[in-house]
Each structure stands twice: as C-alpha cells, then as structure tokens.
C-alpha cells in the first residue's frame, strides 16, 4: 500500500508541472495572445501536491483580475425630447421680390393687378413708392398675412391667384385714375363723358370708349358746370379774351366754358385749377379729339 501511494503522488507531480521546461514548450500549444487562460478551478489550485515536490512556475499569462478587465461600454442614447424640442421651428421669412425703391415692368404689373381688385387707385407707373407700399399693405392685411408693404413670394402668389394677366391698356392706361363708370347719358350717341370723381374724360361713341384722358376743373370760386350740354363752337387756336390766356383746341359747351388743352395743367398737374373750363394736359390727345368731335355732340359732366 505504501508503494502504491508513492506511485500515485509521483503521477500527480508529473501531471501538475513539466519537469523539463524545454520539452514542455514542445508539447504545449501556443495560446493566442489575445485570449487569457481560464482561471484555475478549486481542484487545480495545487492542494494535491505533496510536500517537498518541486513545481515550475507557469509559463502562460496569468488570468487578469476582474479589476483589470474594462467594463463593457454602455450604449449612448439620446435624451428624451422635451416640450421645447418638440415645438415647431420658426419658418424663414418669405423671400422679398419687390419693395420701396424697386422699379420696372414687374412693379407695373403689380400695380395693375392691385388696381384690378381695388387696392391701387392710380395709373401704373413702374415705380414702387409709398402709394404702392400702402396698397400692398392693404392687400396683405385683408388676406391675413403680415402687412409689411413689401411684396414677398407669398403675397405675389396670392395676388396672382386673385387676378388675371393685365392687358396692355391696364399696364399703360391713358389716364392717371381709372376711367369712371359712364353715366347712363353717355351710353348712346357721340358723347364727351366727363367724370369729376375720377377726373377723366372718355370720348364715347354708342357706349364704346374711343379715347380717354386726364382732366381738371374749375376751383370752388369758378366751378365747372354739371349737366348735359351740346358742343356749339370749336376754336383751334383760341385765346381767352377775359383772362388773355391761350385755349388751344377749344370745344365750347356752356357760355365761356370749354374743353381745351392747358399748358399749366401739363406743367403743374392738379396743383392748380381752371377758371371753369375742362383742362386737358395731353396735347396730342386733345388735338385728335378736336378733329373728331362735331358741333352738336353731347358733353355730359357728372360726379
């Protein structure tokens, strides 16, 4: 029994550690550098070795302690959305197309379209001034958009949707203000249809406007008469005997009152007034009118 115990101890000693380090290196496969050997189990901690038995230190890399192994990286997650992050961002302001100081064909079209729907009460000029800005502001306010007075992309799209393409006469009309709706007396025959409200004269034949022009009237002290009159005298190069002023292309309709060209009106506009006559500032237009109108044609002056 004693011999068998000695033999068992000798066998265990051989199994725990190689006696020849060189021979052991030939027998043991090389472990991958990145893989640490498993930690010894309780049955491999050397308790079975006898006292006095010689053991060689292990040549393999000892297992790393738990503290040496880096903890697994935690996944990075985005913070939950807050009320402010869920709120819609402020949209950029629409691109401005036209503003005060702009000029050109597109401004003229803008003015003509605004005039179609009653926001611009003058003749298109092609210049974006304070009157145009106020007309745009009025349109924007009525449509529920920010009333800036500048024509941005949103304003332009809304205007296009509500209006039609302006005609040549709408883009370059013959009068500063729109020609007024004709009085009923103007709808038949040959009539000089003159509106004090729109300050326009429309030469009409059987209800059709042949030509139109801007006019001005007498002051409150020398008012232009209202009503229906016949043309009774034509004087191409007339000069007033009362005021000693030229009255070319005069078409007399009531006493000394006549439709005629006025150089003062052409130069100073509505800053002045006549002595009761109907002044025309476009010399070419009134000259053509003079040649077409006949004695006996009607003159209708109304508000």
UniProtKB/TrEMBL annotation:
GO terms for biological process: cell wall organization; peptidoglycan-protein cross-linking; regulation of cell shape. This is Murein L,D-transpeptidase. The active site is at residues 260, 277. Keywords: Cell shape, Cell wall biogenesis/degradation, Peptidoglycan synthesis, Transferase. Residues 14-91 are annotated as: Disordered. One of its GO terms (cellular component) is extracellular region. Residues 190-302 form the L,D-TPase catalytic domain. SUPFAM superfamilies: L,D-transpeptidase catalytic domain-like, PGBD-like. InterPro entries: LD-transpeptidase, LD_TPept_cat_dom, Peptidoglycan-bd-like, PGBD-like_sf, PGBDSf, Transpep_catalytic_dom.
């Amino acid at each position: 029994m004693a011999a068998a115990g000695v033999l068992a101890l000798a066998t265990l000693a051989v199994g725990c550690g190689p006696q020849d380090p060189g021979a052991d290196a030939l027998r043991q496969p090389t472990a991958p550098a990145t893989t640490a050997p498993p930690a010894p189990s309780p049955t491999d901690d050397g308790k079975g070795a006898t006292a006095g038995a010689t053991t060689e230190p292990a040549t393999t890399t000892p297992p790393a302690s738990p503290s040496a192994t880096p903890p697994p990286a935690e996944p990075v997650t985005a913070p939950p959305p807050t009320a402010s992050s869920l709120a819609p961002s402020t949209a950029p302001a629409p691109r401005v197309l036209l503003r005060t100081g702009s000029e050109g064909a597109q401004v003229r079209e803008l003015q003509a379209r605004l005039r179609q729907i009653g926001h611009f009460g003058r003749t298109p000029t092609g210049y974006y001034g304070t009157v145009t800005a106020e007309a745009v502001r009025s349109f924007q306010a009525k449509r529920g958009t920010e009333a800036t007075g500048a024509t941005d992309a949103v304003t332009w799209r809304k205007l296009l949707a509500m209006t039609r393409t302006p005609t040549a006469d709408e883009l370059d009309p013959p009068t500063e203000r729109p020609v007024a709706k004709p009085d009923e007396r103007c709808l038949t025959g040959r009539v000089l249809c003159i509106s004090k409200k729109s300050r326009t004269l429309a030469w009409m034949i059987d209800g059709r406007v042949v030509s139109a022009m801007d006019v001005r009237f007498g002051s409150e002290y020398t008012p232009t008469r209202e009503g229906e009159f016949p043309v009774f005298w034509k004087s191409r190069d007339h000069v007033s005997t009362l005021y000693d002023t030229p009255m070319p292309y005069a078409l007399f309709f009531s006493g000394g009152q006549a439709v005629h060209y006025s150089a003062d009106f052409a130069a100073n506009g509505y800053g002045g007034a006549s002595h009761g006559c109907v002044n025309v500032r476009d010399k070419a237009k009134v000259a053509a009118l003079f040649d077409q109108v006949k004695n006996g044609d009607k003159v209708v002056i109304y508000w």
